[in-house]
Amino acid sequence: LSAPAPRAVNVDLQTDAMLQVDISDALSERDKVKFTVHTKSTLPNFKQNEFSVVRQHEEFIWLHDSFVENEEYAGYIIPPAPPRPDFDASREKLQKLGEGEGSMTKEEFTKMKQELEAEYLAIFKKTVAMHEVFLCRVAAHPVLRKDLNFHVFLEYNQDLSVRGKNKKEKLEDFFKNVVKSADGVLVAGVKDVDDFFEHEKTFLLEYHNRVKDASAKSDRMIRSHKNAADDINRIASSLYTLGTQDSTDLCKYEQMLSLDFTRSCLHKIEARIAADEDLKLADLLKYYLRESQAAKDLLYRRSRALVDYENANKALDKARAKNRDVLQAETSQQLCCHKFEKISESAKQELIDFKTRRVAAFRKNLVELAELELKHAKGNLQLLQGCLGILKGNT
Amino acid sequence: RHASSFTPSPAAMQPTSLEQVQATAEPNPLKTCENLSSMNTFLMPLEEEEAKDSFDVDVAVTNPEKVGDGMNAYVAYKVSTRTSLPMFRSKVFSVRRRFSDFLGLYEKLSVKQSLHGCIIPPPPEKSVVGMTKVKVGMDDPSSVEFVERRRAALERYLQRVVSHPSLLQDPDVREFLEREDLPRAVNTQALSGAGFLKMINKASDAVNKMTIKMNESDTWFEDKFQEVENEEQQLRKLHVVVDSLVNHRKELCGNTAVFAKSLAMLGNSEDNTALSRALSQLAEVEDKMEQLHQEQAASDFFIFAELLGDYIRLLGAVRGCFDQRMRAWQRWQEAQSTLQKKREAEAKLLWANKPDKLQQAKEEITEWEARVTQYERDFDRIGMTVRKEVLRFESFYLLLTLIVFQLIKFWEAFLPEAKAIA
Prior knowledge:
Domain PX (chain B): 55-184
CATH class of the largest domain in chain A: Mainly Alpha
Oligomer: heterodimer
InterPro entries (chain B): AH/BAR_dom_sf, PX_dom, PX_dom_sf, Vps5_C
Organism (chain B): Oreochromis niloticus
Order of helices and strands of chain B: HEEEHHHHHHHHHH
Largest sheet of chain A: 3 strands, antiparallel
Protein name (chain B): Sorting nexin-1
Number of strands of chain A: 3
Number of domains of chain A: 2
CATH architecture of the largest domain in chain A: Up-down Bundle
Pfam families (chain B): PX (PF00787), Vps5 (PF09325)
Mean pLDDT of chain B: 66
Radius of gyration of chain B: 27 Å
CATH superfamily of the largest domain in chain A: Arfaptin homology (AH) domain/BAR domain
Structural class of chain A: mainly alpha
Mean pLDDT of chain A: 79
Strand content of chain A: 5-15%
CATH topology of the domain at 55-190 in chain B: PX Domain
Number of helices of chain A: 9
CATH topology of the largest domain in chain A: Substrate Binding Domain Of Dnak, Chain:A, Domain 2
Largest interface: A-B, 61 and 64 residues
């Protein structure tokens, strides 16, 4: 299964050279997805102006983690990593369908198979989009786009050989996160001197929680939609079978009823259950859940830097008092100060950009959502009016 | 009696004929049930419009009330009749009946089925689970809903019975509608869902035996019978899925309402004013849509499920009635051939000049002509019944149209807000 070429995002920053990244193709194999990452660039670092490589999900994660671990990037919002491609649920459904083939009519089976295949394709398209968005965000960032690992990721046409984390490393990560959240609590409690950051902290904490809640609830809602949609499909094909049986006095009305009813039923429900519309909202929320987490992580790093700076100050005072290792303490303090100020400066800009991006993304999605809903509803109306016409004509 | 054109609007859902359904104890979330009852009265005018022979009888089943306590408790319904027919004791009257009384009526009518030569509309099925809950207490929403579904089904059942001119004449029907104290029906166990099926199967076995003896021109019946059987099976499967859908939709309503609240919270914490407003409005739209769906759309499938259930049972009765129809057809054919013979005899007598025998022959011809007509009418009645049922679906489409109108309004209001985000 391969995806059609998705749209590319053109990145053009005034003074810098052009760097355009997209995922031009993708292939879904049994247990992995292979993305073809296509780059167009006038940057001097690259050997050619246009080239492609094949990457897998783990390599994206490697790239993301390398950003996170890089001290230099402490002051930036690291674009969130794309989620792992997950076709398990879809595959399971297809398998169950195959097993249950004997118990349903040919029409029912075909219809269900089509639905499941469409679902599989939708998931596939989404995972491609998520991976692409990640790359585009990196390419759009004035600093990250220059990252060496990023360039290697884009250009090196061999396997990057980034094996997944082994158990020990996963455990280390786990503990790191535990410490972070414990620290996070401490940091959240301390009031920041800087108004801007204090406001941002309060805002982000609340926003993040609410996005998380909205995201979870939209997922539940979508699951209900899917269940109802599956029922509708079964009903529709059942009615269709009934209707296409031998036409007699008894069956003629069902025939008329089932074909039109089927269509109007389906379309009516589609107006509410259409995967496009609701998933749009759900995907938006999920993405901003990850983004707001990344923003929180930035604030956390700044807070840590602040703590380190304050500790360094205290150490310097102590050293001066004892008149021992003063130079060392001074150097250390200066480093911490510098680090903290650097982070604060870039963090401020990052957070402002985040806001702008967020508002623009929501606007775009909400407008598209409303337009889609209207389009469906209007089409639906026509269909129903048609059905009414047929019914009236027949009685 | 009712205008043949009506402007569809939510207000039109108000019941117009007999008493409105008594509001249940709580301010209930079960608007679906209210709509179901108003749907019934909404649908009846449509039906009467189209019925070729309409009789001036209106029946309604209302005011379910729990009588007694514990496991012996039952629900009594008010059965109200409004009529202009002289054979009833008055123009407007009502009695109290319980579920087993309805079943008892059906049993009495079935026994006399051959007399009527038509489909005896079947009553709703027994439900031990549903009734046990009600016996325990009528206050929780699922009991309330169960009682309401049953009430509506009983009403439809009675309405079908009285719309058969032949059944209306039946003394048992009249007794059911009029008599203050009806002796308790016994042996209604046979009329549980399974029992009903058994009865139908017995009838179909009898029919099967008969078809073997039929000559070639009657294979039409055999085919018909098979079709109906297949159809019934399909419909049963369908009914299961529709029930599943009704439940999933309920779930969906709940989840969407919860989501709308969450979205509103998110809007609150958003610090861009326009975006905040847009999110709040989106939350409102989602909420309104679901309310709309809960009140009307959920009930359309609910109603569909109910009607589907009715239809399945009706088909079952059709199957059971096939032998009647076959006999009607036979009688009709025999009557026609006898009529033919009589006419030939008459012609012969005319030539032979035997006046009294001629008169007798003439009378017999008239009698047989009437019979032929009667049997032909019987034969057509089944098609008529089905046709009436189908008419109900027309209103269903109207409902859907109303909903979609509303949806469009909501989204058209939201779009400019979304565009205003900056």
